[in-house]
Specification:
binds CU-O-CU linkage; 8-stranded mixed beta sheet; about 575 residues; mainly beta; binds copper (II) ion
Length: about 575
């Protein structure tokens, strides 16, 4: 459907306030609801699922080292809004149609609060997934200021829950960032880019089967599709919105919140973006770029200066092929994202700055002893002839857990992409750095042969990241320090159709008796230090699971955690009692 562009103003998600404090910790409640929301001037209101009844959900504004508590409540209907494929793992016919669990993407969070795919729950917590542990989640915010987001992560239906609207923003801030004098207040604006398709009556369209259908019968109906691409672009929940801006500098926090679509963003005025950060927070120095590529879940923190563009209408454009990088070019419609309308006058002088040094940054470099973990991205077909994407040739629930970094240690993960598309690979818990990429081929006995030089990451890929583009026929090398928490976390492709089928694996951070996260590591910037997570004071946490674990271990150091590592998903003993 062709909807008029730039006729609706860009909405800004509201900032959520706590309902109370529990032992001094702000406590929030967020209720998932089905609502009707106007997404475009000419479209009847659309049925969406929203956190607190809004799509996108309300924004969390948090402070570094100031923890919060959130109770996520499901008041959604019993039947899904979108076609649920019952042949997908986790969504079998005996499972509830509507299951939810919330993941804080980019957050340094204990496993029991991370939003494990099988920790789902249904309306009023009536049914709970096998890994469900508690109702109230604890977010320590013990990491550098960063643009995080929260979204649904229920096994086998993540693509549908997020598409229905279950996503929202979560910022961590601190005094240092504020002292930089970046554009702030109404000059700092989040832009969550998502693609959707609509029925003429305004309802969300999500395909119920692939097109063309594989020649296999019986074929599941509904069935997952290899990737979803919508014909309409939304920003902050509005179709092709416009934003009136003053002729001055703005800070945009750009998120790709789409299921599968990549964006290659430019400004029609030909201006550069001054990129100051990525998923994990601020760069050391600003980077000047004409174009920003964002795969699903990637974020860019950018400054755009409109001061020389008074009176102009500037379009944020997209040139990314779908699938990326070698699929179809965007249409006239999908090559436009939103419009900035630069007003003639300033309300007051622009006193903001983009300093040359933005933050302390520790570059991780492998040594001879750094473990290198070789991982593969593979394409297979399932029993219905459908594309089945895998990591290391394994699906989500195959045992054993093969990726097992030790707490406090640095590892290099190599991502050998043997498929034809780029996959945005995301690790929970950690922020990592991109070391390089390199072309490879496979010889007759299946060994990887590296060809050509190591290709350094793009200039705007040199900050902390939690999602990286693994390009076809390349190995992408990333490096991370794992920790400070131990336990099982997912890593997966963030193309949500891939994540659901079945490009997601658990990894486990193993306990390390020789590592005390509360002792500073030389060279680590204070903003990134694990030690800040030691301030977590469980006595004041107010969340049940912590107290439970506390009571069993907090006053008895000798009893702590030498138990079975294979079951350590529910291991959550406060590591700072280890010595
Ligand atoms: Cu944003 Cu595991 O995902
Ligand atoms: Cu995540
Ligand atoms: Cu993928």
């Amino acid at each position: 459907m062709a909807l008029a562009k730039f006729v609706d103003a860009l909405p800004l998600p509201s900032v959520i306030q706590p309902v109370e404090h529990r032992n001094g910790i702000p406590y929030f409640e967020v209720t998932m609801k089905q609502v009707n929301q106007p997404l475009h001037r000419d479209l009847p209101p659309t049925t969406v699922w929203g956190y607190n009844g809004t799509y996108p959900g309300p924004t969390f504004e948090t402070r570094r080292d100031h923890p919060i508590l959130v109770k996520w409540i499901n008041e959604l209907p019993f039947e899904h809004l979108l076609p649920v494929d019952r042949s997908i793992e986790g969504a079998e016919p005996n499972q509830p149609s509507v299951r939810t669990v919330v993941h804080l993407h980019g957050g340094r969070v204990r496993p029991e609060n991370d939003g494990f795919p099988e920790a789902w729950f249904t309306k009023d917590f009536k049914k709970r997934g096998p890994k469900f542990l508690h109702e109230v989640y604890y977010y320590p915010n013990c990491q550098r200021p960063a643009p995080l987001w929260y979204h649904d992560h229920a096994l086998g239906i993540t693509r549908l829950n997020v598409y229905a609207g279950l996503a929202g923003l979560y910022f961590i801030r601190d005094e240092h960032e504020e002292s930089l004098n970046l554009p702030s207040g109404k000059f700092e604006i989040p832009l969550v880019i998502q693609d959707r398709s609509f029925y003429p009556n305004g309802e969300l369209f999500y395909p119920s089967q692939p097109d063309p259908l594989p020649p296999v019968s019986p074929f599941p109906n509904p069935s997952i599709v290899p990737e979803f691409f919508g014909d309409t672009i939304l920003v902050n929940g509005k179709v092709w919105p416009y934003l009136e801006v003053e002729p001055r500098k703005y800070r945009f926090r750009i998120y790709n919140g789409s299921n599968a679509r990549f964006y290659q963003l430019q400004l029609s005025s030909g201006q550069t973006f001054v990129q100051i950060g990525s998923e994990g927070g601020l760069f050391e120095k600003p980077v000047y770029v004409n174009e920003i590529i964002l795969a699903p879940a990637e974020r860019a923190d950018v400054i755009v200066d409109f001061s020389k563009h008074k009176g102009q209408k500037i379009i944020l454009t997209n040139s990314a092929n779908a699938p990326f990088p070698d699929g179809d070019p965007p249409t006239e419609d999908t090559s436009q994202v939103m419009q900035f309308h630069v007003k003639k006058h300033l309300s007051h002088k622009d006193k903001s700055d983009v300093p040359d040094i933005l933050s302390c940054f520790e570059r991780l470099t492998p040594t001879q002893n750094t473990p290198i973990r070789q991982n593969t991205l593979n394409e297979e077909t399932d029993k219905f002839g459908r594309l089945l994407l895998l990591l290391n040739h394994m699906g989500w629930s195959e045992l054993p857990i093969t990726e097992t970094p030790v707490n406090g240690t640095i590892e290099v993960w190599e991502l050998y992409n043997q498929t034809v598309d780029t996959h945005p690979i995301h690790l929970h818990l950690v922020q990592f750095q991109v070391l390089n990429r390199q072309e490879f081929t496979v010889d007759q006995s299946g060994n990887f042969i590296l060809v050509g030089p190591e290709i350094p990451p793009d200039e705007n890929e040199r900050g902390w990241k939690d999602t990286v583009r693994a390009n076809p026929n390349q190995v992408t090398r990333i490096i991370a320090r794992f920790g400070p928490f131990t336990g099982i976390y997912p890593w997966h492709c963030h193309i949500l159709e891939h994540e659901d089928h079945d490009m997601m694996r658990p990894y486990e951070v193993l306990q390390n008796p020789n590592f005390n996260p509360c002792i500073p590591i030389p060279g680590v910037c204070p903003d990134d230090s694990f030690t800040q997570c030691c301030h977590e004071d469980n006595e004041h946490c107010g969340c049940k699971a912590h107290h439970d674990h506390d009571e069993s271990s907090s006053h008895d150091e000798s009893s702590s955690h030498h138990h079975d590592e294979s079951s350590s998903h529910d291991e959550s003993g406060p590591y700072y009692h280890q010595s």
